[in-house]
Specification:
With 389 residues, this protein is of the alpha+beta class. 33% of the residues lie in helices and 24% in strands. It has 11 helices and 13 strands. The model has no long low-confidence stretch (mean pLDDT 94).
Amino acid sequence: MQKNNYLFTSESVSEGHPDKVCDRISDMVVDTYLAAEPQSRVACETLTTTNKVVLAGEVRGPEIKKDDLIQKVRHCIKDIGYDQEGFTWKEATSVESHLHAQSADIAMGVDSSGNKDEGAGDQGIMFGYACNETKELMPATLFYSHKILEELTKKRKEKLIEGLLPDSKSQLTLFYENNKPKYIDSIVVSTQHTEETDQNYLFSEIEKLCKMILPNEWYREDSRLLVNPTGKFVIGGPVGDTGLTGRKIIVDTYGGAAPHGGGAFSGKDPTKVDRSAAYVSRYLAKNIVNSGISERCTIQLSYAIGVSEPLSIFVDLHGSNTIESNKVEEFIKNKFDLSPRGIIDMLGLNSPIFSQTSSYGHFGRQPDDQGFFAWEKLDISEEFKNEFL
């Protein structure tokens, strides 16, 4: 039996977290290739540690000079804000690139030729999710965890809070009553800072920040805020913890409120359905919830490498509807082209739009007319409403 009253927690990490530094760099590589040639293929992994960045992976596309790519890596590090002993955008941190040509076997399966459509870049399962807890149709615990760190990063870069450094994490626990957010149980914020920064000052500033972001009606007398609960957080970033691309997939998606297929997004061009099919699943789920068909929606797609159409489509409307899920599945199958090429064309994914996705979540963001976060648009809600309501 489903619980209606419960505590639920999600976490977020900032752009300065070691894994997110890697996601940013890997997505920069994707954008660099797509900007030069929209049909480029990229699968880039990044590792960061003390005074070192290593790129590895497979590419197919125009020749990008290694030195140019290394300079772009340094720009990413500088933009995030790292210029510390042990990790800096300057020459003291070495940058190595070990990108090489994509496997011919993979290329044969993915490329279109003759009567063969462009196939999926890998096998796997992908999930999309939406719920009406926030106007962005995202789980509230994750959405506000992201917002806390986005605002903290803004204040760091504008020097509105003194002593902040780039690495930070947040965690929000809400009590749900009848499956709706009711009140704040606890907030945890850990932020890297300079040695001389006063913890009481940090607590005060972060408390003000959280109260500015979170709905006032969620606060109770016993709502807890913990700031740097270990006592201090001076050693951070890639000096304190090795970073790798793709290790924050739950932060990237739905904060644990929905299933995840297992594949990371960052560093992959859109022929990789780990990325593009997860985006279109979110697009469909968000428009279904926005249409009023259900209060929550989970969609699963599955693919096989080299095969263009999904092997299966699964829709779960979570019992909050009067519509049969199998009818929604059939409508999606007949109405939308969910081949890799169909998804890419539908959402305009062959563009250098991915660096912005690398921190603060791939979903719940604001789409714009430049093609960023196109999977967050609500432009097909009427089609679901007209079909089912």
